[in-house]
Design a protein that fits this description.
With about 250 residues, the chain is mainly alpha-helical. It contains 9 helices and 2 strands.
Length: about 250
């Protein structure tokens, strides 16, 4: 309870998801490394940084530019029974890279182990941070301070947990760091995870690196309307840091 703190959001007002996941055991990071940097201080003043972050989400969603809509839907992975979960999306990307390389069993095992550990630790750290700072979602702030009738793009709902940092961004950056260490830091590929889907904009997108994928994945949460920029940027920073810790683990003798 309090100004700027997370509460369940319309239309379903779902219960808080995974409130204790931040207590799970990690593989590569310590307990002290699970908490990310603090968010921008809550402020309702139209001249404040917090208000400007909300205004960006509001205006970006309202513009409905095709490229933004495509990016938002391409990376969404929010709907049970419709798309993958955010971590599973990066297993799909790993699958595609392994197929492109006609990978050996050894390389496949190494890839799945490293990427899965990175995703796990990113999830624990992200959810630990989410419920530590308990930052409300853009829709709550925008409906209260800017436009009471505003809605998020495409989804029709907002995920049922605090905003800061973004889970998508944390998962994506951690996985991208691990994948880059395996396949190369300038590994270009086309993500065909949702190819031939007609129920949303899932057309394949081509990237110059896994980092470029992670950055676009993080940005996608703004035109979708479910995250502030600070959520995405801190999620990426946290994810990269965790990915580097995983890469430093002694996988090979």
């Amino acid at each position: 309870q309090g100004p700027g703190l997370w509460q369940p959001t319309a239309p379903d007002y779902g219960k808080a998801l995974f409130p204790y996941w931040g207590q799970a055991r990690t593989f590569a990071i310590s307990n002290d490394e699970k908490l990310s940097r603090p968010p921008i201080a809550y402020d309702e003043s139209p001249n404040s940084l917090f208000y400007n972050q909300a205004q960006e989400v509001y205006l970006t969603v309202n513009k409905k530019e095709f490229e933004d809509q495509w990016i938002a839907q391409f990376w969404s992975d929010d709907q049970v029974g419709v798309s993958l979960s955010p971590p599973a999306r990066w297993i799909s990307i790993a699958n595609q890279a392994l197929e492109l390389e006609n990978a050996s069993l050894e390389l496949a095992l190494y890839t799945y182990a490293k990427v899965s550990i990175a995703l796990h630790d990113a999830g624990v750290a992200c959810w630990h941070t989410k419920y530590h700072y308990n930052v409300e979602r853009p829709i709550s702030y925008i409906n209260r301070e800017i436009d009471p009738d505003w809605q998020v793009h495409y989804l029709g709902f907002t995920p049922s947990f605090p905003a800061y940092p973004s889970g998508h961004s944390s998962f994506g950056a951690a996985a991208a760091e691990a994948l880059s260490d395996i396949f190369g830091y300038n590994y270009a590929m086309t993500d065909r995870t949702h190819q031939n889907r007609s129920d949303f904009f899932g057309m394949p997108r081509t990237f110059a690196s896994f980092y470029e994928m992670a950055e676009e994945n993080a940005y996608s949460r703004i035109p979708l309307g479910v995250h502030f920029r600070m959520d995405s940027e801190e999620g990426v920073r946290l994810g990269y840091e965790i990915g580097r810790k995983v890469n430093a683990m002694p996988f090979k003798k």
